Amino acid sequence: MPIADPTLPLPHGTDVVTSIEQVVSGHTLAVGTVGRVVGSAGEHVDLQVLGVGVVRYRRADVQPFRAGQLRYAVAREAA
């Protein structure tokens, strides 16, 4: 299972890193911003970004930050 696979769901609590720049409420979120998944809807995920709040990204624009965390989360979901 490649961890960069954008079709894999990201369970809540998964730490991710962004691959695009985005401006939200006057804050510029640079490429490489780290957030935690707090929700998902279709092809989008909601991330909690410290100092900014909840920000919505396309699933394809975020990647898991820690491979082990994603493997554990996927295994837990399957159990």
Question: What does this 3D model show about the protein?
Answer:
The chain contains 1 helix and 7 strands; from the N terminus they run βββββββα. The protein has one helix at 67-78; strands at 15-18, 22-24, 27-29, 34-41, 44-49, 53-58, 62-64. The chain has a 5-stranded antiparallel sheet with strand order 6-5-4-1-7. The protein has a two-stranded antiparallel sheet with strand order 2-3. By secondary structure, it is an alpha+beta fold.
Largest sheet: 5 strands, antiparallel
- The counted number of beta strands is 7
Class per helix and strand makeup: alpha+beta
Written as H for each helix and E for each strand, in order along the chain, the element string is EEEEEEEH
Rounded to the nearest angstrom, the radius of gyration is 12 Å
Content of β-strand: 35-45%
Q: Strands of the largest sheet, in order across it?
A: 6-5-4-1-7
- Helix residue percentage: 10-25%
Q: Mean pLDDT score, rounded?
A: 86
Low-confidence stretches: none
Shape: elongated
Distance between the termini: 17 Å
How many DSSP helices?
1
